[in-house]
Amino acid sequence: MEPSVLKFWRDYVNSLAPGLYQQKMPADVFAFGDSRELVDRLAMLVREGVKTATCSALWTYEEEQKPLPRRGDLSVVLDGNCVPVAIIETVDVFVSPFNEVPESFAYDEGEGDRSLGYWREAHRRYFSRCLKNRAFDERMPLVCERFRVVHLAAF
């Protein structure tokens, strides 16, 4: 783990009241998006409290043999320079086919005009770019995660 991320995590843990459950390390450290511009834009939406959900292809978790996020997981969100901007807590996780993701979830992702139509088009393009060993499919299973910000970096 990068020293700046570790320091950010430790500063958060040290700010908690004594005796409060403390996850020893973040469940994950990641950036939303696949380009520096998109990563920065999505990180800002998280900071502003607009983006409170995200999704990933279930296939990616299977290929990378990574566990699915779980309720209560704490993760560090990075910006386009790999600088920590927030710690988020997973509050809900469900798996849904792409073409059945609910409108409320698209709204919670906070992107564009927050409509289901915008979400579908943006995510169709994203998954078409990012899937390594599979082609985009309208029925592909997505891991849908809602989260809340529990700590923000000072700017």
CATH evolutionary superfamily? Sulfate adenylyltransferase
Q: Please tell me the CATH architecture by its name.
A: Roll
* Low-confidence spans: none
The geometry reads as: globular
How much of the sequence is in beta strands?
25-35%
Outline the biggest β-sheet: 5 strands, mixed
Distance between the termini: 22 Å
Number of helices in the DSSP assignment: 5
Verbal overview:
The longest helix has 15 residues, at 116-130. The protein has a 5-stranded mixed beta sheet, sandwiched between helices. It is 35% helix and 25% strand. It contains 5 helices and 5 strands; from the N terminus they run H-E-H-E-H-E-E-H-H-E. The chain is globular and about 45 Å long. The model has no long low-confidence stretch (mean pLDDT 94). Helix 4 crosses helix 5. It has 155 residues and is an alpha+beta fold. The protein has one domain (3-14, 24-152): Sulfate adenylyltransferase (Roll), CATH 3.10.400. It has helices at residues 3-15, 36-47, 58-64, 103-109, 116-130, and strands at 28-30, 53-57, 74-78, 84-97, 141-152.
